[in-house]
Structure formats: C-alpha cells, structure tokens
Amino acid sequence: MAGHETHYTLTRPVFDKPVKLLIVVAPYYKDIADNLIAGAKAEIEAAGGSWDVAEVPGALEVPTAIAMADRYSNFDGFVALGCVIRGETTHYDTVCNDSSRALQLMGLQGLCIGNGILTVETRKQAEVRADPADQNKGGGAAAAALHLIALSRKWGGQKEDVGFKRPSDTFLLAGDNDGSTTA
User: Fold this and answer.
1) What is the mean pLDDT of residues 16-23?
2) Mind listing the domains of the chain with CATH numbers?
3) Which sites bind 5-amino-6-(D-ribitylamino)uracil (predicted)?
C-alpha cells in the first residue's frame, strides 16, 4: 500500500524575495478541505511565504478561479485543493479529469500550481491523505507550487507576462471586417 511507503522529498526551496500564493479550495467536504488548507498554510509559512485563500463551490471551479486570479492579481503561485470521492455515477470521472487537465494546461502555460485535489474511492482515503499529521497532501501541493516558483525565478526572474495573457482591449465584432469597431 502506497500510504505506508517512504518517498524522497525535495529540500524546501529558499527565497531571496518574498513569495505569495493563493490557495484555491473547494470545501465541499469541509473537514477534509480544512485539513488540506492547514497543511498548505504550514508549508508556505515554513518557506517564509504568505498566502490568501479563495473558496469556490467545487473542484471544477478551482482552475477557473486560478486563471482569474492570475489575470487580475499578482500571486507568484497557486495551490489547488479539494476532494472528489467516487460516487455512483460517471460525474466523478468528469470532475477528476477536467479539473486536473485544466490545472495541467495552465501549468504548461507557465503558472506555478500545486495540485492537491484529492481523487479517492472512499472518505477514509481522503481523511488520511488530507491529515497534516499523516500524508499531508495539502502541504505537498504547497511544496510543489513553491518548487515551481523557485524554478521560474531561477530560469525567468520575477513573474512578468507568464501564464494566461490578458485579452486585448480591441475586439472584432461580427460583421466588422476592418477591425475598426471596439467593444
């Protein structure tokens, strides 16, 4: 069972400039979400960073909130937290696949995201994974985001024009071929 194995953990990165992360959480299972948040906050603080928390209704909204925060705020990285427990329908597969895929695509665009959205078969599995004194997946997601921030600073300096691009102020409206009409 993977929960009883010992895994190698990277040394916590050290930053010469402050880091600020946004923890985006879907508190559908409030007790599990609270443990994930506690682990993430502790890891960020241990690295000398600061954090804000944003709550969204469910795991599918986590990527959207991160994209919005990247567009309208100035965070160095993001921690995606939530829990999806398999039920009786295929909705589980949709939520797991689509939220994970959206986070991965944003990461490939340059956002520093730690994915701590648990995808489990049972509540007990979620409780063990969320517990900061056990598997601490919230802390692990924060650590992943911190390591990505460290790499982005090493390779590209401070965050500038990384991630999703803001839409331009000029939009071509239907029927306007010359682009002279703006919204």
Assistant:
1) 96
2) 19-156 (3.40.50.960)
3) 28, 59-61, 83-85, 115
